[in-house]
User: Fold this.
Amino acid sequence: MGLFSKNKAPEAPAPVKQVEEVKEVVIRDEIIANEEEYIFDKTFECPLCGKSFKMKKMRINKDRVISQDTDLRNIYSKVDHYKYGALVCARCGYAALDDMFKPLAKSRKDMVVNGISVSFEGLDLPNGPYSYDDAIRIHEHINKCNDVREAKASEKAFSYLRMAWLLRGKNECTESPKAKAGLQAKEDEYITKAQEAFVEAIGNETFPMCGLDEQTVNYILADLSRKLLKFNDAFQLISRIVVSNAAPSRLKDKARDLRDIMEEDKKRLGIEE
Ligand SMILES: [Zn+2]
Assistant:
């Protein structure tokens, strides 16, 4: 069976939930009391319309990473940095994740102008810190912008993944079981979109991909595949990382940990092979 052929789904292909490390159940605040101190207004020049605009950005040295999810989402001690990891030009509506906010070829520019700018009325972002809903609106707009300009699959994949992380962050700040279930379902949708886009990207693009090397992308895709119960694909990706001469030992360790988590997932779900 090929790496990305469809696995026989052992049961309804609902994503695996609660299979990662058991997190402490602490409801975090969406916006912490002094979040203002962790952010600042930064001015950017838009590579599409040439005008300047301001966005909130993190003061990176004021916060630190305290842990990491299996799909490499960092957990920070105070503020969720991903709320501030994207750019939207307030003038023309061109938008992308920070690292992907780059000049476009003329034909792509025209696509954004005709598909976004002509009807763009701004995202009405607050003057103070961003809530998750603000960040989610920004990322919905990025996904629309990516579609309009027919962005590379890798760019779409990372934007979907970032959206999944924001939905997870919001979920961690939510108490109502019904709201949590809704956020989990939305996160699962974006995990699915990201997994599909990463498969397409690996098939058609070269590395580094959005700044990440091949084995790191393989690792992320392995975890997304695991969450979608595509265990055969995930095991094959992990094997590639473990035998790779290019993968650093830290990534190999994470890949082996992921393999252990998957063995547990399979046991829990009663899947035998
Ligand atoms: Zn602009």
